[in-house]
Amino acid sequence: MLHLYKSFMFRVVKNMYYRIGCLIALVVTAAATTGVIDFPFPGLKTAADRMFFVSAAMVLYFTVFTPLFMNAEYTDGYIRNRIIAGYSQRQIFAGCVLSQMSAALLMYVLYPIGGLIGGAGFGGQFICTLLVMLFALLAYTAVVSAIAFRCRKTVALMVISIMLFNLCFNCVMFGNAIMMLLDGKPAAKVGAICYNINTLGQWFCLTGLADDYVNPGAPVQILISLAVTAAACLLANLGLAKRDLQ
Predict the structure, then answer these.
(1) What's the first-to-final CA gap in the chain, in angstroms?
(2) Which of 32, 70, 161, 229 could pair with 142 in a Cys bridge, judged by C-beta atoms 3.0 to 4.6 Å apart?
(3) Could you tell me the CA-to-CA distances from 98 to 24, 63, 145, 245 in Å, in that order?
(4) What angle do CA 48, 53, 54 make, to 5 degrees?
């Protein structure tokens, strides 16, 4: 299993588009943090605020990269070769999702380096914010990986992935309106949990642009992300052993 994970991870790291993505994460974060990129939001007052705001770009990046990479693993015959070598589809899925989550983690490490270059200060609260967003990004990557592993048609896969990102974005917009109506009511706590199931919901909570009532707190957000990751992996494994690769 460790060898399988290493082989997938090696293929991810040597991928040209992943390397370009890491470079963009570093450069764009540094530019945004310094103020070279202007954002029309008065709430983004500090370098750290601007740095965190651009973290949503990594969600969009893995919306595109993960499906394309994993679909290429099918079309190139790499996954079939792993099955011929004696690995089960569950083992291959585990290797795929862990390598994609590791790739997201590696990019996320480069992202605050760009913030430091741009002059962002890292206090205890901001480090906690970055940690929460990391778990949210890993959960989203697990969901996209699960979809990509079960859907082998390239066009359909990309449509589903883009629709997922659009759904997450629109849920933030509609969620804000619903949470305004629930503010002060007993259902507000349940609403806040539902709002934060969405990775972009957690991101918007942490930007400082959202109202406090949509934020259930860092421990709850991390638990939600862990639950989403586990659910995505469990659902992706349903009936996987009986699936026939064409």
Answers:
(1) 24
(2) 229
(3) 23, 16, 9, 21
(4) 105
Distance of CA 236 to the CA centre of its chain: 17
211 touches 179 (CB < 8 A): yes
**Do the Cβ atoms of 97 and 235 come closer than 8 Å?**
no
Q: pLDDT tens, 1-13?
A: 777 888 888 889 9
**Could you give the dihedral angle defined by the CA atoms of residues 31, 44, 162 and 14, in that order, rounded to the nearest 10 degrees?**
30
User: Is residue 47 predicted with pLDDT exceeding 60?
Assistant: yes
- Separation of alpha carbons 17 and 12, rounded Å: 9
Per-position DSSP letters for 2-27, written without gaps between them: HHHHHHHHHHHHT-HHHHHHHHHHHH
Helices 56-75, 2-13: axis angle to 10 degrees equals 110
The CA distance from 160 to 19, in Å, is: 25
For residue 222, pLDDT over 80 is answered with yes
Render pLDDT for 113-143 as a digit per residue (tens, 0 to 9).
Answer: 988 888 888 888 888 999 999 999 999 999 9
What is the C-alpha separation between 119 and 241, in angstroms, rounded? 50
Sign of CA dihedral 148, 132, 195, 232: positive
Provide the whole-model pTM: 0.91
- Distance between CA atoms of residues 186 and 178, nearest Å: 14
